[in-house]
């Protein structure tokens, strides 16, 4: 008996692995790769939590979830109470559990990260949200009495949904105006089905709708109605219109056919379901050799999408080394497992077309790493005379996005920064106009889902204070 004790202790300390589709299965489908913890695994993982008196994990969460609180409910087997605990501060747990960079946030600050593996907080959050969905339940928080005050939200992305959730719970009347025909923003058009199933996004949107939030789609604020026109009908406005303006490299050949921004490429596949053409009307080319330029999560998503569309070879072209890749480590690992070829320390300098204007080749330079730049990462420096040409029949450019310019252009008096983002006071998310707030990518440029939600939380608290000062109209 004494011989079995050490083995049991080691097992109990180990972070539970996430079950996944095998690489050879998943490259042939768009189904979710990570399958989620079964209940027994979730309880085992939750039981590793030390229930710290001063939990450092909480400090790493931009929306202030009571992390040890919901983990304790899992250990106790009271999953409904766990869901309720999360939903006090997070309307989108199934989404956050899947796409938040926990390794840079709550799991980074978890005390167990020092000596062993941190608690798999994101996987446990996802477990509870999926349990709720599978059980057909919807835990609804306590709602405040109606105030009669009206708030318009521009954009049904993560920031807008978070503000809506918080304000409707506080008793205000909330209406979302969404430019696309579906809600979710980047969650819907940007992140592929195999990382975030769209049924989950729809479920979370339906949840805020069930709380009483009204949603108008195909409504482009700045075109259909301006912000100032909306302010005739609403007491306050939150702008969460995202970062929909893709960057290009500004090299020759970027206007060739077969060269996409990642925004266009992923929107065709994720939102317009191009991968199910002709059942859905939007076609997407299925090239055999694809280059994806960039090293972030969007680049990984684009490369893994190209793999699933049947490309023979998919290259990820990145100008720094693997250590500097900004994508989440698990997404890099998934891409490698699925056969994406990493062309590191490589910089495209020219795209070359055929006689019909289609991309056929890409000229690149080899790079080496020099001194650290302003970002703290070592600067990539071209190796002179290292030019080479590689054959590609599609190129996807995934090097970033700027804030969507429509609202800044059509709303007089809004202060805008050099990068085109709306300037806000960080503590309140308030803009230079007294009844307009903003958050998410329209302020930060492209950032994470959870930071957009954090902005939404801050804005909602500030809007609530503003509306209460105006007084209830109910
Ligand atoms: S810091 Fe880690 S171990 Fe401590 S309460 Fe948070 S999740 Fe649990």
Topology, element by element:
Blueprint (H helix, E strand, L loop, with lengths): L4 H9 L9 H4 L12 H8 L9 H4 L7 H10 L2 H9 L5 H7 L6 H4 L11 H14 L15 E5 L3 H12 L3 E5 L8 H4 L8 H13 L3 E3 L10 H4 L5 E4 L5 E2 L12 E3 H10 L17 E5 L3 H12 L4 E5 L11 H9 L3 E3 L2 E8 L5 E14 L5 E5 L5 E4 L2 E4 L3 E2 L3 H5 L25 E3 L2 H4 L4 H22 L4
Parallel strand pairs: 1-2, 1-4, 2-3, 4-16, 6-14, 7-8, 7-14, 8-9
Antiparallel strand pairs: 5-15, 10-11, 11-12, 11-13
Bound molecules: iron/sulfur cluster.
Provide the list of bound ligands, each named once: iron/sulfur cluster
User: Major sheet: size, sense and barrel closure?
Assistant: 5 strands, parallel
Mean pLDDT: 91
Query: Can you tell me the overall shape?
Result: globular
What is the CATH topology assignment of the largest domain? FAD/NAD(P)-binding domain
The chain-level structural class is alpha/beta
Number of domains: 3
CATH domain class name of the largest domain: Alpha Beta
From the N-terminal CA to the C-terminal CA, the straight-line distance is: 69 Å
Task: Give the CATH architecture of the largest domain.
Answer: 3-Layer(bba) Sandwich
CATH superfamily descriptor of the largest domain: FAD/NAD(P)-binding domain
Query: How many helical elements?
Result: 19
Number of strands: 16
**Helical residue percent band:** 25-40%
Low-confidence stretches: 1-11
| CA radius of gyration | 23 Å
> Strand percentage, roughly?
15-25%
Strand arrangement, largest sheet?
3-2-1-4-16
